[in-house]
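Morning F.,

Quick status update on the modeling queue. The single chain you submitted on Monday has been processed. Sequence for confirmation:
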Amino acid sequence: MIRAYKFLMRPTVGQQAALTAMLRDHCSLYNGALQERRDAYRHSSRTSIKYGDQSAQLKEIRAFDPERQGRWSFSSQQATLRRLDKAFAAFFRRIKAGDSPGYPRFRGANWFDTVDFPKDGDGCRWDSTPHDPVTRVRFQGVGHVRVNQHRPVVGQVKTVSVKREGKRWYVILTAEQDQPKPLPATGSSVGIDLGIANFLADSGGGFVPNPRHGHKAAAKLEAAQQALARFPRVGRDKRTKNHQRAVEKVAALHRKIRCQRLDHAHKTALDLVREHDVIAHEDLKIRNMVKAPAPKPDPGQPGSFLPNGAAAKAGLNHSISDAGWGVFLTILNAKAESAGREVIAVDPRNTSRTCPQCGHVSAENRPTQEKFHCVSCGHSAHADTVGALNVLRAGLVRREAQPA
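Structure tokens below.
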């Protein structure tokens, strides 16, 4: 299996300048390749340039501009061109699916924050000084950069990436390792219901409160964004130190919220994986759930629109995004795979409207957000617990129906 590791780097001032230059030059290569594809399509709609065509030009580009392109790893530049090729592949895939296409855009200096090295030892070397007690990673054109390795890397390192987050620099590794031994069986199965009032309710009647990290930091983030908005829109060369500090403050707040959300997701998922063999959850289409409502034209007044509940829906969308369901489910599946647990996604329709006692399905069974009261048999319980019970039952049925 493949596992990723992310470590904080401690570059010197000179190494920070070199890393920044590496990002800038790779960004220039990305934008140049994008411009070439755009020009080819405008010249003739039947003319298309692929990754192989642009990769074959790298040797000439490096020879023509040795100061900006020739000093970096050839493989990392190929990875940047593959990144553009994947963007176009996703663009055409969305067109065929009927989604919003989203044509690949040019990347600004602050939008290009990652450089990939497809193979350890080709332009980079992880732990390049094994006899040194301090872990270092070496990059072509940068040198040996000190790394804060907070945990050991298990397995053979395959790829290495450099990522900039605000003023911090990280190295991201992917390592191939043997499948770990599964955790001892517990004989327990659980269904979970994700929500807003409570982050998670399980079929056993337990609840995990919603930390609402984004909501708690909303006031500080709003003040920092307002302070940033006071600076006029000027060119990058004319921005002051105060403007840069305002940008870094906003970025630091966003980073803190993201780290808090990830920490909560990891801890919650780990508790579930340790205590249960089978975990069933709703197969939520989160991207569809956070879409803005469609406008309602007023037939009596052309050009006017009727109220469509956009303000209330925007608040709900913000709460869903703040809860981080998608991140949690991704982490849960990864931890379950490592621990030998089984995760089952079930259809979420009517899970909170079906009575677990008699099976009666009705919207009237849920008179309020928290209360469930069956109009047929009178069964009463917490609505989220009822949803988790129905999810568990649907998950077990689907598990038994699957062929061995």
